[in-house]
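Appendix B. Chain record.
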Amino acid sequence: MTQALPEFLKTVTISQDDLEFGREITVTHTEVVPVSADVYWSGFDDYFRLQEFVGMHENMTTIKGEGGVGTVIEFDFLGGRTQEELVQKDEATKTWAIAMLGSNPLFTTYKATVKVDNDTSETAKVTMSITGIVALSDHDKRKAHIAFTQYMLRNRINEILCLIADKKGEVLHFEVDVDCSLQKLWDAVNDWAGYTWVMHATGVEVVPDQPNYDLRRKVVFGPRSMEERLVMGTENPNTLEYEFGRNDNMRVLHYRGKVEVQKISDKKTKAKYTSTFLPQPGVDAKANIKALMETRLKWIQDTFTE
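Structure tokens predicted for this chain:
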């Protein structure tokens, strides 16, 4: 994980009760999403596709079941294998839940529940809760993991929006080779407080929101600005993911961008970029985003050439 997120998570407050080792805790978050409850709930139609789509589920296999309640999957996790069972899928209340079988290096027990409620005809209220016992005996590591788990709730809620976009084909992939070292380009992309890799940007203001476990930034473009939320950053592979909500310039209801930087040689680096988005109704966002990103990547190629 890159440094912006863990440094931010050090500043959030975790209750002393939740920090007690061996205690069962519950973390929860509610988010208003820019689609109806029925549209959002459609993201849970295919259990296997959902589990394959979300992050941290590598090399997934099915132990039993055909995707309904009682289905058990297994996947790689922190050097071992973790099993999860689908324990609830209630169409009437739009409630979905999975439970870990056994334990893993982070949790002794674990259950995740998603509840989708009507908000307006165009929005839904989605609540995700995780109840479990953290397995980490070290106090600082336990605190960091609880904070990370809380931060991930919003990530997971919005990840279903990305799954819905993926099912609709609203995904674009780009790549470009840049004549510079990997370190030069990655240092720029990996700096949440920086903007040298953002075309036309004139400044950045980092916006930490500790009470809501949220790390954003305001990217300034002269007289206007836009807000982005940090989703995740990793090293080996070097990736950065960010997202934002409704944006009339991009013509989207929700957008998630992922940058990956790969070494080709000491003086050549490959930049990959993935756009996943939900278009505004009646708008062809794909053509607009394709043109914008092709221009932006050409600018990165020209700007970072050594």
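Further analysis of this model is presented in Appendix C.
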